[in-house]
Amino acid sequence: MTPATGLTLGAVNVEADDPRALAAFWAELLGGAVEGATDEYAFVSAREPGGFAMFFQQRIEPRPERQGQHVDLTVPWGTREAEVGRAVRLGATHRWDVLDEVPWVQWSTLTDPEGNLFCIAEHPPAG
User: Fold this and answer.
1) Are strands 11-16 and 53-58 parallel, antiparallel or unpaired?
2) CB neighbours (10 Å) of residue 111?
3) Which one of 4, 16, 106, 113 has the minimum C-beta count within 10 Å?
4) For the VOC domain, which residue ranges apply (predicted)?
5) Mean pLDDT within 93-105
6) CA 36, 109, 114, 88 torsion-angle sign
7) Both ends of the chain: CA-CA distance in Å?
8) Whether 109 contacts 117, CB under 8 Å
């Protein structure tokens, strides 16, 4: 087995109809800053060292109906509902909750203003 290489998540890349507007939503949700925005590209910096950034580029093809990948965000236990409410106030759409599928996580699935899926999850305290 090869030892760990020190790989980390640098950025999540997203195609967008309006890169500036979608970057503004994600910057507000995640606490980063929009940097280097043009009509075709926008970059949201990581909120803190070790966090992940997001890069938005102009969509050139229609969005696929099925999204095979999405971002899962984690919040402290007991704060998921408040964070879902905040995301909705910022422009997200709440789609559904999964509260009892497995004992180690509860999550809510949402879409951002352009319809990209993401989840907000909480894990119960150990013990």
Assistant:
1) parallel
2) 17
3) 4
4) 8-123
5) 95
6) negative
7) 32
8) yes
Assign residue 31 a region (left: φ > 0; alpha: ψ between -120 and 50; beta: otherwise): left
What DSSP line would sit under 51-90, residue for residue? --EEEEEE--SPPPSS----EEEEE-TT-HHHHHHHHHHH
Q: Amino acid letter at 14? A: V
Question: Model confidence over 22-70: pLDDT tens digits?
Answer: 999 999 999 999 998 888 999 999 999 888 999 999 998 877 777 778 9
Please give the helix or strand (H or E) that residue 27 lies within, else none. helix 19-30
16's tokens: 């967008």
- The 10 Å Cβ neighbour count of residue 43 is 20
- Letter for the amino acid at 1? M
